TrEMBL record:
<keyword id="KW-0732">Signal</keyword>
<dbReference type="GO" id="GO:0032190">
    <property type="term" value="F:acrosin binding"/>
</dbReference>
<keyword id="KW-0964">Secreted</keyword>
<keyword id="KW-0325">Glycoprotein</keyword>
<dbReference type="GO" id="GO:2000344">
    <property type="term" value="P:positive regulation of acrosome reaction"/>
</dbReference>
<feature type="domain" description="ZP">
    <location>
        <begin position="126"/>
        <end position="385"/>
    </location>
</feature>
<keyword id="KW-1015">Disulfide bond</keyword>
<keyword id="KW-0272">Extracellular matrix</keyword>
<dbReference type="GO" id="GO:0035804">
    <property type="term" value="F:structural constituent of egg coat"/>
</dbReference>
<dbReference type="Pfam" id="PF23344">
    <property type="entry name" value="ZP-N"/>
</dbReference>
<keyword id="KW-0165">Cleavage on pair of basic residues</keyword>
<dbReference type="Pfam" id="PF00100">
    <property type="entry name" value="Zona_pellucida"/>
</dbReference>
<dbReference type="InterPro" id="IPR055355">
    <property type="entry name" value="ZP-C"/>
</dbReference>
<dbReference type="InterPro" id="IPR001507">
    <property type="entry name" value="ZP_dom"/>
</dbReference>
<dbReference type="GO" id="GO:0005886">
    <property type="term" value="C:plasma membrane"/>
</dbReference>
<keyword id="KW-1003">Cell membrane</keyword>
<keyword id="KW-1133">Transmembrane helix</keyword>
Length: 448
C-alpha cells in the first residue's frame, strides 16, 4: 500500500452492467465508470456496500501515514571545515619598493694645469786619477721616498758606503771596473758608467713606489800632455777656477705657460700662438754664472744637422724676427742663471704633419765676464735690443740663418736637458751644452 495514490473496485450490476468504483487519493474523490452490461443469464455477485469503500479509504490513509514515518530524511550538506589558521587579509596590498639610489653631489671643476715633473739632480761623480767616486742621494727622484741600497748598482758593483748624515749612497771603484766603457776622441779618454736602479716590491706587497731608472756618468781625461824636457812656466790660476773646471753643469730648456709661471706639459700648439721657453743652468757650488742661448735651429727630425732646417737664433741674435717680422724675441733678463724667450709658432712649407724639433746650443759663463759680441741675447723689433740693456753689442747681428754648428758639448740626458763641459783658456772658463725640445705638434686654427 506504500505509495498508493488511487485504487479501483469493480462490481457487477445486473441492471447497469460492470461498474467500477475508483478512489483518487490526491484529489480525495470517488468516481464510477460503467463498462458494459452483463448477460442476464450470468450469476450476479454479492453487492458491495458503501462501508467497504470507507474501509478501503481508511486503510489507504493508514498506509500513507506509515510511509511518511519510514521515508528517509533529505540528506544534509556537510558544513564546510575551516582550518584553524588562515592567511590574514590586510585589505590594501603593499606598495613598498626599494628606495632610489642617492647620487653624491658633484664638485665643480676648478682651474687645472698639467705640470711636468722636473728632472732630479741626485747623482754626482768625482773623477780621480785612478778611480771614480760616485754619490747617489737616497731620495733618488726627489720625491721624499728613500730607495733601498740593494736596488742600486753600477754595472756589477754594489754600494760600498753610506753617509747617513748627508743621506747619500757611495760607490768607489777603479776606472776599469763596474762595467766601464772606454771611448777615445781626439783630445780625451772618456770612461762611461751606468747607474742602474731596479726597485723591488716593498716587503711582501706586490707594489713599488718608484720606477726603474738608469743614469749615465762619465769621466773625461785629456789625451794630450806636454812631454817636452823644457821647463814649464807656471801660470797662476785661482783655486775656484780649478775646482769648477773639474765639474760639469746641467743645462735645460723648459716650456712655460702664457704667464711664464708654470711648466707647460704639452707640445701641442696652433698657428698664431707663441712658444714660451726658459733656458737655465744649474750651477750648484760654482761661482755665479750667466746663461746664454747661442744657436737654435728647427728640424723635422731630432738630428740638428738634418734637412730641411730653419735657424731661429744665431750667435745670440733672434734673426727669425728680422727675416719674417715675427714676434720672436728675448725677454728682459730677471736672473743671471735663467733666460726666457718667445718664438712664433710656424710650420715647414709643404709638410702636412706639422711636426718638428728645436735644438739649442747653450753657454754658461761667470757673471764677471762682460756682455759682448760673444755673450749676448739680442732681439729685433724696429731695431736691435739686448736683454741686459747693452744694445750696442747687437750691431754685428746678421740677418742670415745658418744651421746649428757641430757641437762639442757633452751628451744630452733626455729631451729638455743636457750636460755641459768646461772649456776655456787662462782665467776664463765657460760651459756649453746642447738641448733639444720636441716633437712639437702644430695644428691649424679653424675659421668659422
Amino acid at each position: 500500500m506504500q505509495g498508493l495514490r488511487s485504487f479501483c473496485v469493480q462490481k457487477d450490476n445486473s441492471l447497469s452492467g460492470t461498474e467500477r468504483l475508483c478512489w483518487d487519493n490526491g484529489r480525495n474523490t470517488v468516481f464510477t465508470s460503467v463498462r458494459e452490461k452483463q448477460r442476464s443469464n450470468q450469476p450476479k455477485p454479492a453487492p458491495c456496500s458503501t462501508a467497504c469503500l470507507v474501509a478501503l479509504a481508511l486503510l489507504d490513509c493508514f498506509c500513507e501515514a506509515q510511509y511518511g514515518i519510514q521515508k528517509p530524511s533529505t540528506p544534509q550538506k556537510p558544513s564546510p571545515q575551516y582550518p584553524q589558521q588562515e592567511k590574514q587579509n590586510f585589505g590594501k596590498p603593499l606598495d613598498w619598493k626599494y628606495p632610489e639610489e642617492v647620487k653624491p653631489a658633484v664638485k665643480p671643476e676648478g682651474p687645472f694645469e698639467q705640470r711636468n715633473p722636473v728632472a732630479a739632480r741626485t747623482v754626482a761623480v768625482d773623477c780621480r786619477e785612478q778611480s771614480a767616486y760616485v754619490e747617489v742621494q737616497k731620495d733618488l727622484f726627489a720625491i721624499g721616498q728613500f730607495i733601498n741600497p740593494a736596488d742600486l748598482t753600477i754595472g756589477n758593483c754594489a754600494v760600498t758606503g753610506e753617509d747617513r748624515v748627508a743621506q747619500v749612497l757611495i760607490f768607489e771603484f777603479a776606472l776599469q771596473d763596474c762595467g766601464s766603457q772606454l771611448t777615445l776622441t781626439d783630445d780625451s779618454l772618456i770612461y762611461s758608467y751606468t747607474v742602474n736602479y731596479n726597485p723591488q716590491a716593498l716587503g711582501t706587497s706586490p707594489v713599488v713606489r718608484t720606477n726603474p731608472a738608469a743614469v749615465i756618468v762619465e769621466c773625461y781625461y785629456p789625451r794630450r800632455h806636454n812631454v817636452s824636457s823644457l821647463p814649464l812656466e807656471p801660470v797662476w790660476v785661482p783655486y775656484s777656477s780649478v775646482k769648477i773646471s773639474e765639474e760639469f753643469l746641467y743645462f735645460s730648456l723648459t716650456l712655460l705657460t702664457e704667464d711664464f709661471l708654470y711648466a707647460r706639459p704639452s707640445y701641442q700648439y696652433f698657428l698664431g700662438e707663441t712658444i714660451n721657453v726658459e733656458a737655465s743652468v744649474s750651477q750648484y757650488f760654482h761661482v755665479p754664472l750667466r746663461v746664454f742661448v747661442d744657436q737654435c735651429v728647427a728640424t723635422l727630425s731630432p738630428d740638428s744637422s738634418s734637412q730641411p732646417s730653419y735657424a731661429l737664433i744665431t750667435d745670440g741674435c733672434v734673426i727669425d724676427a728680422l727675416l719674417t717680422g715675427s714676434r720672436s724675441r728675448f725677454l728682459s733678463r730677471t736672473s743671471d742663471d735663467k733666460l726666457q724667450f718667445q718664438l712664433d709658432v710656424f710650420r715647414f712649407e709643404g709638410i702636412d704633419s706639422g711636426t718638428f724639433y728645436i735644438t739649442c746650443s747653450l753657454r754658461a759663463a761667470p757673471v764677471d765676464v762682460g756682455i759682448d759680441a760673444s755673450h749676448r741675447a739680442c732681439s729685433y723689433s724696429s731695431g736691435w735690443t739686448e736683454a741686459n740693456g747693452f744694445n750696442s753689442v747687437c750691431g754685428s747681428c746678421e740677418p742670415v740663418g745658418v744651421p746649428l754648428p757641430p757641437a762639442n758639448p757633452g751628451p744630452g740626458t733626455g729631451p729638455g736637458t743636457g750636460i755641459g763641459t768646461g772649456t776655456g783658456t787662462g782665467n776664463v772658463f765657460e760651459w756649453q751644452g746642447e738641448v733639444r725640445l720636441g716633437p712639437f705638434q702644430i695644428g691649424e686654427k679653424a675659421i668659422a
